[in-house]
Amino acid sequence: MNPFESFRMSVRAIRGHRLRSVLTTLGVAIGVAAVITFVTLGASLQADVIGEVSGGQSPSMTVSAAPDQNQPGPAGDGQAVFTEHDVDQLREVEDVDAVVPSGSVPVSGLAAGGRTLGYNQLTATTPPYFEYVSRADFQSGGPFEQGAREVVVNEPAARLFPGNVSVGDTVTVVRQDGSRVNATVAGILAASEGPFGNTPLPQVFVPTDPFYDNSLSAPSSDSPQRVYPSLTVVATSFETIEAVQSDVRGYLDDESDARTLKPESYELRVQTVEDLVDQIRDLLDTFTAFVTGVAVISLVVGSIGIANIMLVSVTERTREIGIMKAVGAQNTDVLQLFLVEAVVLGVLGSLAGIVLGVLGAFAATEYVGLPMTFPVEWGGIAVAVGILVGVAAGLYPAWSAAKTDPIDALRYE
Amino acid sequence: MSDVAPAVVLDGVRKTYQLGGQPVHALRDVSLRLPRGSYTAVMGPSGSGKSTLMNLVGCLDTPTDGRVVVDGTEVGGLSEEARTEIRGSKIGFVFQTFNLMPRLTAAENVALPMLFQGVPGRQRDQRAADLLDRVGLGDRTDHQPNELSGGQRQRVAVARALANDPALLLADEPTGNLDSETGRAIMELFADLHEAGNTVLVVTHERHIAEHADRIVHLLDGGVEREERIAEPRRPTAAGGQSAGGSGGSSERSVGSGGGDGS
Asked: Which residue of A has its CA nearest to B259?
């Protein structure tokens, strides 16, 4: 029999049991909708987070030394092993735009506007930091100068002090030995949101010279020189970033001071923004897969609903099956008829599920406050799943319908 | 008509069922010829083997022994698929309980056997309309079975049985669920169809229905008891109207009995 004829007959049968068909379809629809909602939510979250992390980024990589573990997440401050010599050598690597060292300066407190606050660490770096690494704009003023007694604070830090410090004010740094160093505020960074939508903590930046005094005698020279726990290497473009990454890697492994200064159990890491993005993506994929897995359960329940109703339908229509067979319907015709009916129910359910799912995803992303990113391929996947669910759920009932003996079926009351 | 192959030949047919390990002989050595264009009735009490005979002639079942030949094809050795094919193309069934598909219209019910034979849609619709016209239901084509009276339903069933121009019209108690007047109209329809050249086999246990045929085969305990020639077959023209026309006429009341019309 022509499949189109089966389709017409199936639609007739489905419409003949309106309420039952709607309820059956609803089971699949809810399953598909749940899957689509969660997948969309996951995709939206991912797009948002990755957009935040990689948005406006320079083609940079972070160089650090950390315990030899395959742990995900951004590299934290490791051991200070990168010397000034390393920094200079890395600057010479082809296609490197800048190398920005950074480290922390432990202090006891800060004083400004007549108040002294407990404060335990400053970030020491060089002026290119503000161009390449920090993603915040200057609200006022500009970067400090190397060798000058100047500081840059971010907005939350500026607000710590009564009357808010502003550019040109003096901030007194109380070092751990109790000595006090006066510095001028060179610039104030605007507060920017972090990748997860959190507000940034107060931060105070100082130039490595004169504030940072972590130093060691390194293999490359006898005199002590500054050592940093982390460097940011900026490539000239995203196209060259991979080549730069491998060159940096090569230098660190073969020639650097860092390789001799680091403990055996530590490894030198060169992590690009891409690597970080990949890690976050992996993490969110796992999260999405988990939530989607939960939603798939409801889809399975929905398909059991179809199987159930098709079985009822076959029993109920035993006599009709007998009639059809008496007037010349082959087993394959009967099989096709019931299978098409199950598939139609499945597809109707998944179409309704797409609509429900998109609405649900819209509501959910709206509620969480994310821009919605709909993974279009899931529309196709949902329809495919609908067909699959229909076939899987309809196969046994259709087969048992096809196997019905016409003599018994005609006698069936 | 002896030079033409008969529509149906039964030759030494035996049918034995196993019922709880005990063999039940439904038919023992039945031989029967239905020449083309003949009108035969099979009579017998319950348990005489009427239903088994019907199932065999209708290719719903195969004999344990002996030959069943329908329109020149022996049914015994055929696969289920091949028997279904013969059923669809060479047999037209009319049941006591009408057995119409409840959600299909009269026209769609009539077109159903053609659907399974792969007749194109337009041709199906045309023939279904013609056949319904012929049984006097030209104005009821879009009605569903539950909107039709018992007599009308049986007319739809007769039209459906004729859909693929079968070699044999096989009717099982066609008036069993109808009141006598409606039954008479249906028998009139069969007479007309016989007149038009169709081969008809009616299975019944009512003598006055059987007398419409030109031959009655009496079954008893699974065997042919005797064959009876009817010199002057009963024709219902005296009782009712002129022809089988009467589309939904006043003589046909809806029969609500039996719930057996498949709904």
From this structure: A413
